[in-house]
Write a structure and sequence with these properties.
The protein has ten helices and ten strands. With 280 residues, the protein is of the alpha/beta class. The mean pLDDT is 97. It binds NADP nicotinamide-adenine-dinucleotide phosphate.
């Protein structure tokens, strides 16, 4: 596939495309919006054909409709070639609720297993041990290949890891882009040390990187490599081996631009220059 790079998932032998397709606001926000279904299915199919065989979704997105759209879009592909990640919402973290939530996701996605099942947000009202036991059962039952978390701090990750006995935590999906760099303090180093993949969400800062004042700064560096602001911003996010990113778009031209952001590297001094130049 043109220029796609692959990154090892946690300590597993599985290699993920460094760019996955994010699906928040595809098919609605908190409730379903059926008006863009055709376009959504087409763009997901195109993204997969172009190498984004990793799709990230969640039971919460559009009240389940996003998973339905992903399910429809992936029907024409070989299941084994795809990496499908979804998430259980924070109100479903009791043992039985986790198992039930997985059944709902599988039904909407029209598949019999997912590749990665993630806890969307921690819920201090539910013992994490109980949730992790349910997550582990889903691995043993063949419903998910791997377990991940999202929006977990270091303490939560340590706890989650300590409650697993037969499997390992492979990923943490967190906010990361050139403007929002909070994870660099402790989450990113912790994940590196423990071989946990960071799945960077909102890697384009919701499109802010394509606007001023960021655009001009990113373009200045990009000129050296023949790349745009968006491509420089995404390339920067995935500069470490343990990071993959899940940008989202409903626009064909934007998809092409996103695909051109990997398969090349900037000089180390330019990555550092970017960090100094971009206001956070
Ligand atoms: N785990 C969590 O709690 C969590 C939270 C937030 C997000 N996420 C995940 O992360 C994914 C990505 O985050 P996100 O959707 O919030 O934000 P994002 O990917 O940073 O940005 C998406 C926005 O950027 C625009 N865009 C995309 N490509 C562009 C380009 N080449 N030029 C200019 N604008 C461009 C898109 O508009 P167009 O459609 O017009 O291209 C869209 O408005 C989500 O879809 C979701 O899967 C997870």
């Amino acid at each position: 596939m043109r220029g796609m790079e692959y990154r090892r998932l946690g300590k597993t032998e599985v290699y993920l495309p460094v760019l996955g397709f994010g699906t928040w606001e595809i098919g609605g926000r908190f409730l379903p919006d059926y008006s863009t279904d055709k376009q959504a299915i087409e763009i997901i199919r195109l993204a997969v054909k172009k190498g984004m065989k990793f799709i990230d979704t969640a039971e919460m997105y559009a009240g389940g409709h996003t998973e339905e759209l992903v399910g429809e879009a992936i029907r024409e592909f070989d299941r084994e070639e795809l990496f499908i990640a979804t998430k259980v919402w924070s109100s479903n973290l009791r043992y039985d609720d986790v198992l039930k939530a997985m059944e709902g996701s599988l039904k909407r996605l029209k598949i019999d297993y997912v590749d990665l099942y993630q806890i969307h947000w921690p819920n201090p009202g539910v013992p994490l041990r109980e949730t992790m036991k349910a997550m582990e059962k889903l691995v043993l039952d063949g419903k998910t290949r791997f377990i991940g978390v999202s929006n977990f701090n270091v303490r939560d990750m340590e706890k989650a890891m300590s409650y697993l006995s037969r499997t390992e935590l492979v990923s943490n999906q967190v906010l990361y882009n050139i403007i929002d760099r909070g994870i660099e303090e402790d989450i990113l180093p912790f994940c590196k040390e423990n071989n946990i993949t960071v799945i960077a969400y909102r890697p384009l800062a919701k499109g802010l990187v394509a606007r001023e004042p960021y655009k001009s700064i990113l373009e200045r560096i990009g000129r050296k490599y023949g790349k745009t602001a968006v491509q420089v911003a995404l390339n920067w996010v995935v500069r470490h081996e343990n990071i993959v990113a899940i940008p989202r778009t409903m626009n064909y031209n934007h998809l092409e631009e996103i695909l051109g952001s990997v398969g090349w590297k900037m000089m180390q001094e330019d990555y550092e220059l970017l960090e100094r130049m971009v206001p956070i």
